[in-house]
Amino acid sequence: MLRKYLDKIKPNFEPGGKYQSLRSVFDGFETFLYTPRSTSQSGVHVHDSIDSKRVMIIVVAALMPCLLFGMYNTGYQNFIGSGITDLNFWHIMLYGFLAILPKIIVTYAVGLGIEFIVAQWRGEEIQEGFLVTGILVPLICPIETPVWMLAVATAFSVIFVKEVFGGTGFNIFNVALVTRAVLFFGYPAQMSGDRAFIASSPICGLGGTVEYSDAFTGATPLNQIANGADAATDAAGHILSTWDAFLGLYPGSFGETSTLCVLLGAALLLITGIASWKIMASVFAGGLFMGWIAYTFQSPIYPGSAILPIDQLVYGGFAFAAVFMATDPVTAARTGIGKYIYGFLVGVIAIIIRVYNNGYPEGAMLAVLLMNALAPLIDYCVVQANISQRMKRLRA
Amino acid sequence: MAEKVNNKSVFFNPFSKNNPVIVQVLGICSVLAVTAKLEPAIVMGISVIAVLAFSNVIISLIRNTIPTNIRIIVQLVVVAGLVVIVDQLLKAYTYDVSKQLSVFIGLIITNCILMGRLEAFAMANKPWPSFLDGIGNGIGYTIILVIVGFFRELLGSGTLLGYQVVPQWCYEHGYVNNGLMILPPMALIVVACIIWVHRLCNKDLQED
Fold first, then answer.
1. Most buried residue among A153, A238, A302, B85 by CB atoms closer than 10 A?
2. Which is nearest to A331 in space by CA: A319, A343, A313?
């Protein structure tokens, strides 16, 4: 039925039709809903039956565990923070859903709006890269980020990081991470500290007003340790074991707290072969390695160095960045050996920033952005090394 | 530049078609450094206009007696002398701004626009066109500085020339100044936007 409707309205969008200027919008929706019918006109080059829209959908599916857990965590933190004793699962989920929904809608509306306008302007097809970015952005931001800030930062990074470089597939930096970086540097007071990570007010009669006290802190584990706490605790003051941190019921950016859910997403990405296991594994290896060095040479000047290496991996956004950010195929290194080097350095730099820069208790974001910038250089070196090796073999 | 120079185009070209910052891309460092607020940007612009105009005239007057081998040194001496005068004047009359600008007035000596104009124009032209060229390029530089300073101060601090422009009402309803605008990277991005708009309006400047 939908197909029939699309076919009926299609002539309006052909060149010469009534809405020809909206052709790319129509085209975008049509190919999103149905596999395009047009086949290649010249020789056929089959790579795979999968096109980038379907890749994006799978990545979004892989993010679902994080999203659902984020909803639960948001609701849970608000409920215990406001002293509600009746922890009804569905109430918690509904609260979290209502808290994140406006952010997802705004991010998509702003990002897709810009993409539509630019596609129209250039007369190209709409590029689908924003499908993933739009869900990543709300997931990596603190829940208390005002919606208008999200809109500003999303617009900024879609325009300056993606569209000016030529759109999806040409960006140097990960768009979602730049959005977060813009928020972080533009509005530091709203993006860090101990008030940003817990939804503090009731929504539609659900939840309550959070009252911060000595018994209830909104600081993330990394923040607490950077401020000199002996051990990380959850919001209510219970000490977090590695297993608790792995499960993720503690204050943090919306979707990144639960390493378990991140790993569920990682499994889906690896089974479908969408993300590179080389990058993922080497990010974790790099994090462990640097965490171990920091732990071995720990000093009281850098409180972060007292975190166990394994805890470094489960606190904060490290796992999320390793699985969903570092593996972004556009901005990561592309050669095989390059992927190992790239991933390893992402892990190492993330922990270095975390431990040795007391100003930024979380380093995964900056590490990935830095390595995005260096990825082409890594690829170049790998390719050159390969060339010179072969030349040597040729001469021998 | 042996051909006859048209005084009018010498003066007006640097405003837009041959703007030192957005077309020749010179003097970017000081655009980064002094544009977080509008006031230092304006003072810096005026200082550069003055130094540029007078150094152009002086070099143009002695252009035939400068030995080619040491011309850069001679130019530097002239510019440095003028910069010191400007610096002292600022310290005497606008001490606060002078403190904000700190080393950047001194660094006018190494501002690429100055050496560029001296080498490219004053060494080959008579004093009057050189004077106009200096003023023109100085104003072209100042225009960009003021535009960048305007946006950075407005969005980054909510003020203009120190007066609050964004109404208090907005702050009470959750508006927050963008701290990123105060940081140097945003100066580059604002300049990039100006170049973008400028190229859109001037098709002949677009490169492939």
1. A153
2. A343
Encoded amino acid at B29, one letter: C
Tell me the domain boundaries of chain A.
19-33+54-258, 275-391
What pLDDT is recorded for position B1? 44
Mapping DSSP to helix (H, G, I), strand (E, B) and coil, where does residue A219 land? coil
Structural domain boundaries, residue B109: 17-142+152-205
Q: Which of A122, A152, A187 to mutate to test the interface with B (most CBs of B within 10 A)?
A: A187
- Inside any domain, residue B44: yes
CA pseudo-torsion sign A229, A232, A234, A240: negative
Enter the ipTM: 0.78
Instruction: Determine, yes or no, domain membership for B48.
Output: yes
Residue with token string 């209830």? A216
Q: What angle do CA A52, A147, B36 make, to 5 degrees?
A: 100
Domain assignment of residue B11, yes or no: no
DSSP B14-38: GGTTT-TTTTS---HHHHHHH-SSH
Question: Is residue B135 situated within a structural domain?
Answer: yes
The pTM is what? 0.82
Task: Give SS3 for A203.
Answer: strand
Structure tokens at A175: 């768009």
Q: Report how many domains make up chain B.
A: 1
Q: Which amino acid is at B174?
A: G
Q: Does A189 contact B176 at a Cβ distance shorter than 8 Å?
A: yes
Q: Residues of A with CB below 8 A from B180's CB?
A: 182, 185-186
Are B107 and B51 in contact, with CB atoms under 8 Å apart?
Answer: no
Q: Which pLDDT tens digit goes with each residue over A160-178?
A: 888 888 877 788 898 999 9
Q: What is the mean pLDDT of residues A117-139?
A: 82
Q: Residue A142 in contact with residue A98, Cβ under 8 Å?
A: no
Task: Give B70-129 pLDDT, tens digit per residue.
Answer: 888 888 899 999 999 988 988 888 888 888 777 778 888 878 888 888 888 888 888 888
b or e along A254-275 (b: 16 or more beta carbons within 10 Å of the residue's beta carbon)?
Answer: bbbbbbbbbebbbebbbeeebb
Question: B179–A152: do the CB atoms touch at under 8 Å?
Answer: no
Q: Are A353 and A316 in contact (CB under 8 A)?
A: no
Cα–Cα distance for residue pair A369/A3, rounded to 1 Å:
42
Residues of chain B in contact with residue A149, where contact means CB-CB under 8 angstroms, are 176
> How close, in Å, is residue A374 to chain B by CA atoms?
19
Task: Kindly determine whether residue A186 and residue B174, on different chains, have CB atoms separated by under 8 Å.
Answer: no
b/e burial code for range B9-44 (CB count within 10 A of at least 16 → b): ebbbbbeeebbbbbbbebbbebbbbbbbbbbbbbbb
- What are the b/e assignments for A202-223, b being 16+ CB within 10 Å? bbeebbbebeeeeebbbbbbbb
Show residues of chain A in contact with B170, CB under 8 Å.
none
Strand, coil or helix: A166: coil
- Rounded distance between C-alpha atoms, residue A289 and residue A294, angstroms: 9
In angstroms, the CA A236 to CA B98 distance is: 52
